[in-house]
Amino acid sequence: MWKVPVACIAFMLLLLFQMTGYAQEQGKTYNGVVYDNATKEPLPGVNILVKGTGQGVVSDIDGKFSITIDTPDPVLIFSFIGMESLEYPLTGQTELEINMDPSEDSLDEVVVVGYGTQKKSDLTGSVGVVGGDEILKAPVANALQGMKGKVAGVNVFLNSGSPSSSPRVLIRGLGTINSSSQPLYVVDGVVMENIEFLNPNDIESMEVLKDASSTAIYGARGANGVVMVTTKRGAKNTGTTIGYDGYFSVGVLPKKMDVLNAEEFMEVLEQGFANHNKYRPDSPIPDFTKNDPNLFDENGNPLYDTDWQEEATRTALSHNHQLSYRSKAEKSSFGAFVNYTDMQGIMLNNYLKRVNGKFAFDADPKEWLSVGLNLLANSTTENVFEESGGHQMPRRSMIEMPAIFPVKFPDGTWSNSSMVEDPYGLEAIPNPVHVLTTQDRLRKRTKLFGNIYTTFHILPGLDLRTQFGFDKNDFNEQIYSPTDLINISSPNGYAYLANERVLYWQQENYLTYTKDFGDHGLNAMAGLSWQKRTSEYFNVSATGFSDDTFKFNRMQSASQPGTPNSGYDEWSMNSYFLRGNYNYKSKYLLTFTGRVDGSSRFGENNKYGVFPSVGVGYVLSKEPFMQGLSGTVDEFKIRSSYGITGNTEIPTYQSLGTVSTGTTLINGSRAPISYVNRLPNPDLEWEKTRQFDIGMDLTLMERALVFSFDYYHKLTTDLLLDRPVPSSTGFAAVRDNIGSVSNKGIEVLVRAFPVTNADFSWESTLNFSYNKNQIEQLGENDEDIFPGPNWVSGSQTILRVGESLSSFWGYERLGTWGTDEATEAAEVGAIPGEAKRSAERKIIGNGLPHWTGSFINNFYYGNFDLTLDVQFVAGVDILQQFFHSTQDRTGYASGLKDVLYDAWTETNQNTMVQQIRNGPYSGQNSEVDSHWVADGSYIRGNLISLGYSFDQSLLDRIGMNKLRVYASVQNAFLIHSDEFKGYDPEASSWEGNQWGQNIFFFQYPRPRTFTLGLSLQF
């Protein structure tokens, strides 16, 4: 699989390098002056490059230049910040006068917004843009991974190193409790579910709509922000191009958790036995022995010292290949793209494989008519990794499985922690290699996605567009856990099958009108939309398998079949929307947006909601009094917006009194039953987010420095919570709108071009954001709510008015009881050496960061390019739930080394680590407390990439347009607090839980990935 591509690449590179030795023609010298065509002033510092080569010069202070060229039929490329780039063919003349035109304002870049595009100069809202090339700089299977750190105010949490995991995205903070916090994803105008399975190679650009002025056009679905994705289509210029992009990557475990080896583990056990009488003097403990001949030699030394982290992980080999065909004729364009991705996880047997195909067609058959079609299909197969909760799964057992056990005994038998004759009382742990290699967790997904549109050009500037889009997803899950996995599925085995079919469609029609009336500019749009989503599902489980021969393929062979489950679900929406943009002299800007949404998901009395917004802008740089600053201040715009958006992402039928069905035993036979399981609430309505934004965009020194700033205040009201009702109703609560949450923050973007010349250029981008989250109201009496995740000590988080969402809830650890505090310790049922905690629980940390950002630098030297991408997070905590079993619960399993080297003893009493004890015999002392909390701030070397693009003159000789090779390392380094003892400070083991961010009971390590890539085009 590796030999053929490597050999082909090596041959191609050798051929290209040989071509560089060809004889060149005699050189010719050209002299010239470069002028600003608007002012007729000479331009110093203009980059002048011979097209297809690395040869170039820079104009002097008088705009003059001189260059000697060997290339036949040369073309000079002139570039200068603030000027339109110019290509100038040399046709014999040697004395040149070059006139460069000022470029359009950088604010005039066209960006995608809801139902159309706008000039950036006309925007009154806050929109972040990420190009497709930026997403692909790192090898990613998921487009959201490539967006991380690229847009201020957008937090992309990569909570797992698994290729099959899905990132969590928060835009401008968390503003909901029971509804979804994910943004709305719109791909080529169609809402897409499961965007994590979209092929990143197909993406042209991603726009993030953040404030109300930009998101209100999506009304009831815009409160969490909107991510607009534009995919690639046909060629932009007449002709045909064929391209290939591919890479091979190697992922490795960047660090290991510092756990006990075999000798250290035995020492911990021995000390725990020795300390038993301090805790339970009236309960005898067996003698400590090391007699098992399968584990110890005749001197009691361990026969094995297994590094379970090493055994359960691997060097992950992944590859990705993309073929593209793009063409353009006079009145049509066509694009076809095929992709194959094979991503291995660093945990054994974890992988993602995806086949993706896409084509797009656009045509203008008549002057008054445009049509287009976009269709995407992909099939994904995964062997997923279990990442939820605190079960005996490999992310836990590769840390807790004692090193004294081998992967397999000499007779080929898989080991587990029960295979010891000595009476240690160990918890039943299956070895992680056994689980990873014998357990199936297969997921298969098929997606069909696309849209078709027709645009009627009714009058100059007036268009009517009608489009139909759909997103069809078929999901199949197959799980089988063998009969010999103790504490998981032994002795009966377990099988589970699930199927789900989801179809979403939308039909939209809208008019757009664009017209300039002298100094006045108008861009208006109005339309209506229908949307519907249906889902049908079925699942069944079974236990009681005599062996593992058929796995999930013959469920009927199980002696204990589970109850089958099936269901159907649907919702629909009907919407009306409009937007108007007005500008006067491109200086004073006004935007009005409104949408009316009607949804089946809400109460009979509140089916429809109205979501308006208004935005204003003032381009100061166009004022006469600013003209004197020309050359210093290029563009300066102030903008502000206010509006209301909604959140409709709740389960269906919440406003209705619903009926559940099932069966029960009556007279020894199964009989069907029905019962009301929810009170109706006809007044149930949308969560509403009111957002104010004020910002500025500033460009200085002939666009060498770009600065953007935003301040926002979001207030989400009518939060959906369970309101208590009188017990006489027969229910404890009813779903109602009774809470509010605020988010306030700033966003800063600075882009600079410190060096720009023919030989070397440097582009630097710094973006960072700050967000403060606060609960403003929780029902009539503002009672505390404990939403989970529920684990040791109950709920790990609390919802409390005046505090932030995702606040950790637990005791404060004050240290360990000392020998001089024995009397005081006894009053609370403790002895010296045990944890000393506060009497009451309190807020001990928070899992949502205050500060996030990135510092990205791109360097260009000749044909080389270098990217250094550093990301940072500050003002956040981590709840290390794994301290429960690796530090506070000794004797049941292995743990961290500090259990042995930093534990309380009579000579080491100034420590947070409790005295070693044997939990199975002596009991345990484990509660969620502040000792488990670590500073979650970090600095990550997200990407280091080095590339080389071959000279066009060489490529022309073999008919190629582009050839670039590159090498990169992802997750190159990580700097974090010494308090944190896990793999990565950004994680969760409560997959899908709203409050699980930075709370984890072990985690999937995030790999360090080395990549070699190739991009070529004919």
From TrEMBL:
Domain of life: Bacteria
Matching SUPFAM superfamilies: Carboxypeptidase regulatory domain-like, Porins
TonB-dependent receptor plug domain ranges (all copies): 120-226
PROSITE patterns assigned to the protein according to its UniProt record, in alphabetical order: TONB_DEPENDENT_REC_3
Record domain TonB-dependent receptor-like beta-barrel: where: 453-971
Gene3D superfamilies to which the protein is assigned, alphabetical: Carboxypeptidase-like, regulatory domain, TonB-dependent receptor, beta-barrel domain, TonB-dependent receptor, plug domain
GO cellular component terms, A-Z: cell outer membrane
Annotated compartments: Cell outer membrane
Pfam families, per the entry: CarbopepD_reg_2, Plug, TonB_dep_Rec_b-barrel
Signal peptide span: 1-23
Membrane topology: Multi-pass membrane protein
Family stated for the protein in its record: Belongs to the TonB-dependent receptor family.
Protein name (Swiss-Prot/TrEMBL): TonB-dependent receptor
Annotated organism of origin: Echinicola soli
